[in-house]
Amino acid sequence: MIIVLRIDDRLIHAQVVIGWGRSVKPDRIVIADDDIAANDWEKQLYASASPDFRVSILSVARAFEQINGGVFDKEKIILLVRGPKGAMRLLEMGLDLDEVNVGGMHFSEGKEKLLDNIYLDEGERDTLRELVKRGITLEARALPDSERIILNSMVV
Amino acid sequence: MNEQTGIIVTHGGLARELLDTAKLIVGKIPFCYAISNKGLADEVLVSKIKKIIEETDPSFAFLFVDYFGSSCSLNCVRAVRGRDNTVVISGINLPILLDFVTKRGTMEPEEIINNLIHRGQESVKIVNI
């Protein structure tokens, strides 16, 4: 059972492990990311970062297959993608969700600030816009008890 | 080749405050740097850390992070990947930092590392009587 699909370019980090972990008590954190799934060094790094939860690091397609196939039905999972594209791909494959948490998209060169923890380049803004068109609610919330800001009208 | 350099990488303003607080106790602290991960994408943080290491060219680099498994800790590991004469230690606290700035240069890096970890661990205890 997916508790939250979160866009967060830091993937597994303190906010997710402590902030979300303490509140939603997940059994597993699933990272859906093609690059990391294909990179043993990065996989090992993320796997070592979270001793308190089971961690799965899968390509986006494999993550969808496993979710859709019921592999995680008996677990509460936090599903993490690095950017809007990952979320879009999962939804296009048929992931049944109507809300995406936009948790962290941090600053790098060429990105414009939307909120304190959300900086976007044009491609990312376009993808968020596409998600809105699909009827997805984009909620920006760094932590479960942070203010819930709906981004839908801010990205169209 | 320069000194044994310290780089503290933390959430929020903790690194800066730790360093400033240590300076209140021991005075000037050269070759020690504070970085916050606040608002920074992974690759930006990694390049900041790398830049300090390249520019200071330390004989040994001690990287300190506040929380194991955090983005600070992961990005330090990324920044020093493949580099010799470097260590990343998590769980920085004031006793560790004070020990580092007073002991560096007086013993071999391996000995300092053991000392720092021991100091950090033994300073966490119940003290009321």
Structure, briefly:
The complex is a heterodimer of chains A (156) and B (129). By secondary structure, chain A is an alpha/beta fold. Helices cover 38% and strands 26% of the residues of chain A.
Descriptive notes:
- The complex is a heterodimer of chains A (156) and B (129).
- Chain A has a seven-stranded mixed sheet, with helices on both faces. Chain A has a two-stranded antiparallel ribbon with strand order 6-7.
- The relative contact order of chain A is 0.19.
- Chain A has 156 residues and is of the alpha/beta class.
- Helix content of chain A is 38%, strand content 26%.
- Chain B is α/β, with parallel strands linked by helices and 129 residues long.
- A four-stranded parallel sheet of chain B has the order 2-1-3-4, with helices on both faces.
- In chain B, helix 3 links the parallel strand 3 and strand 4.
- The relative contact order of chain B is 0.19.
Strand order, sheet with most strands of chain A = 3-2-4-1-5-8-9
| Whole-number mean pLDDT of chain B | 95
Oligomer: heterodimer
Q: State the low-pLDDT regions of chain A, or none.
A: none
In CATH terms, what is the architecture of chain A? Answer: 3-Layer(aba) Sandwich
Helix and strand string of chain A, N-terminal first? EHEHHEHEHEEEHEEH
**Which band does the percent of strand residues of chain B land in?**
15-25%
The CATH superfamily of chain B turns out to be Phosphotransferase system, mannose-type IIA component
CATH topology of chain B: Rossmann fold
Count of alpha and pi helical runs of chain A: 7
Describe the biggest sheet of chain A?
7 strands, mixed
Instruction: Assign the CATH superfamily of chain A.
Output: Phosphotransferase system, sorbose subfamily IIB component
Per DSSP, the total helix count of chain B is 5
**Global Rg of chain B:** 14 Å
**Shape, principal axes of CA atoms of chain B:** globular
Largest interface: A-B, 21 and 17 residues
What proportion of the residues of chain A form beta strands (DSSP E)? 25-35%
Number of strands of chain B: 4
Distance between the termini of chain B: 48 Å
Largest sheet composition of chain B: 4 strands, parallel
